[in-house]
């Protein structure tokens, strides 16, 4: 078995474990047993279950970032831009088998790590550029723009968690609701900054 094959087996097994029982309840033994790869290889590559969790979280964040970025890149209307990017993020996550359970079971870990990830910073920087492109906020300080972008992201995260808990929810309606809420807040912030 090649290193890449073993890592794929470990990451696939870890995804299944983290989406069924969560990081807190998971053990390295659970991941290794499901992977059919030796425990020694796991410890050589990852050392801890938290390390492999972080790797998986980064891969999921990259997929969501790319889907949202592509969806909003052509839009010049704030509401449409937010709705399309959030819808794309929701769809991307729901296309990953087990993602709703992964989000629900591990949300406290995701929240703790989210704003420390380079993928999140890239997502926020791209979002800020797009917001400045479609909303007149020239007098808004960089710190305020950081806060506005973070508020958009956390509202979308709440939408994802809502969908994870309610799998029959319409993602189009949810993306319209979260986009409408954030668009109203952005307009209010822009007006307050002149």
From TrEMBL:
<dbReference type="InterPro" id="IPR050624">
    <property type="entry name" value="HTH-type_Tx_Regulator"/>
</dbReference>
<dbReference type="InterPro" id="IPR009057">
    <property type="entry name" value="Homeodomain-like_sf"/>
</dbReference>
<dbReference type="Pfam" id="PF00440">
    <property type="entry name" value="TetR_N"/>
</dbReference>
<feature type="domain" description="HTH tetR-type">
    <location>
        <begin position="4"/>
        <end position="64"/>
    </location>
</feature>
<dbReference type="GO" id="GO:0003677">
    <property type="term" value="F:DNA binding"/>
</dbReference>
<dbReference type="InterPro" id="IPR001647">
    <property type="entry name" value="HTH_TetR"/>
</dbReference>
<feature type="DNA-binding region" description="H-T-H motif">
    <location>
        <begin position="27"/>
        <end position="46"/>
    </location>
</feature>
<keyword id="KW-0238">DNA-binding</keyword>
<protein>
    <recommendedName>
        <fullName>HTH tetR-type domain-containing protein</fullName>
    </recommendedName>
</protein>
